[in-house]
Structures are given as structure tokens and as C-alpha cells.
Design a protein that fits this description.
This is Enzyme. This protein has 218 residues and is an alpha+beta fold. The chain is 22% helix and 27% strand. The N and C termini lie far apart (99 Å). Bound molecules: FE2/S2 (inorganic) cluster. The site of FE2/S2 (inorganic) cluster (FES) has 12 residues, from loops.
């Protein structure tokens, strides 16, 4: 009997310490606390800036020596997801020229976002055709990002670009806006670097297709 009583006491720990209902309350409370902690962790993760300088979404400082020559093939900056181009439509060649509806010269350096304005594919520069071409649905763009052929609905987007002095701090000039779109920037003398802010992007405008002027739209 004595051993039976001892077995009953130690085998029902819940009844001697806490009731089943209390135990379920504790489990429920612990679950709530765990979910709350997870939520708080997610909130902190969301609030922490996800882009450090040099990463996409931040700023990139590029030596002026890495800017391409005027109307030459663009330079690819893969980490920043942009192309640097150097434009002068007054010195036309196969890559860059002035269309009939472009009354003003297109001059300066621009940073072009590497994502197609149609459905977001990554396009590339096609040197044999002297233009950007998207592999997904065939959109084509001139060196400055203007649409040559659809289905792209607009010109390629651009990032804010600044001319920086050799102290890597002083901003000598920055791209201005026209129709809420960054114009190419003519680099002033003394420019040692260009800085591209990939956190500041402007959508390209919906100008007519260039192929319409050339009479060779597909
Ligand atoms: S995503 Fe580039 S043409 Fe469709």
C-alpha cells in the first residue's frame, strides 16, 4: 500500500503541482510570447536599412576614368544594376544620334537602370546592333535609353547622377529634371568622380518609337 501511494504521488506531477488547466494556460502564454518575439524581430529586420553604400539601393562613386568615351558602348556596373553612358548627339554615330522630334542636343553622362520597362527583364547591350536589346519580348533602346522598338512602354529609367570633386565629397553639379526625368549631366571641369544614387530613380518618358522616324518599325 505504501509503495502504491508513493507511485500515485510521483506519477501525477500535474495534479500535485499545477492543474491541467493551468498547464494549458502556460503553454498558451508561451506561444503568444514566442509569436510576439517573432513579430518584433521581423519589425526590427524591416526597419534596419537594407542597403549599404555601394550596394544596389545605395550610392556608387565611380572614377571619371571609368566613364565611357563620348558615344561609345556603355559601361556595365553590375552591382549597382546600371549602365553609364556618355552622350553627344551633335557628334552622331551608329550608337547615338538626334531624332526629328529632339530639338535640343542630348549631351552628358547618364546612369541607366538595367531593367526593361516592359515586364522587368534584364536587357543587355548588343554591340553588333549598337543598341540595348531585351531578350524577353524584343524591346530595343538607343544608347541613351530611348525606345527604338516596342513592346517597351517607355524609355529606360535613370538614376540621379552627380559630379564630384577629387575630395570625394564636394558636389560640383548634379543631373537636373526635365518632365520629371533625369537629363544627362555635362561634367564640369574639376570632376574627378561621378556618384550614382540608385535609391533615386526616375521613370523614362513615353516618347514615340525611334523606329517610326527611321521608317523601319517591324
Ligand atoms: S520584358 Fe523586355 S521586352 Fe518584355
Amino acid at each position: 500500500m505504501a509503495s502504491q501511494a508513493a507511485t500515485a504521488d510521483t506519477g501525477s506531477g500535474l495534479s500535485s503541482g499545477i492543474s491541467r488547466r493551468e498547464f494549458l494556460y502556460y503553454v498558451w502564454g508561451a506561444s503568444i510570447a514566442l509569436v510576439s518575439l517573432q513579430g518584433a524581430g521581423l519589425l526590427v529586420w524591416f526597419l534596419i536599412p537594407r542597403f549599404r553604400e555601394g550596394e544596389f539601393g545605395g550610392t556608387f562613386t565611380v572614377s571619371v576614368d571609368d566613364v565611357p568615351p563620348i558615344n561609345a558602348s556603355p559601361i556595365n556596373f553590375a552591382e549597382g544594376r546600371f549602365w553609364l553612358v556618355n552622350l553627344d548627339s551633335t557628334q552622331p554615330n551608329d550608337l547615338m544620334y538626334q531624332a526629328e522630334d529632339e530639338p535640343n542636343p542630348i549631351l552628358g553622362v547618364a546612369a541607366i537602370y538595367k531593367v526593361c520597362t516592359h515586364l522587368g527583364c534584364i536587357y543587355s547591350w548588343t554591340p553588333t546592333n549598337n543598341r540595348f536589346e531585351c531578350p524577353c519580348h524584343g524591346s530595343k533602346y538607343r544608347l541613351d535609353g530611348r525606345r527604338v522598338e516596342s513592346p517597351a512602354p517607355r524609355t529606360l529609367d535613370r538614376f540621379l547622377l552627380q559630379a564630384i570633386a577629387d575630395d570625394e565629397t564636394t558636389v560640383l553639379a548634379e543631373a537636373t529634371l526635365s518632365e520629371d526625368f533625369y537629363e544627362p549631366l555635362v561634367l564640369p571641369s574639376g570632376t574627378a568622380f561621378v556618384r550614382v544614387d540608385t535609391g533615386s530613380r526616375k521613370n523614362g518618358p513615353s516618347h514615340p518609337l525611334l523606329c517610326e522616324f527611321q521608317g523601319n518599325c517591324p
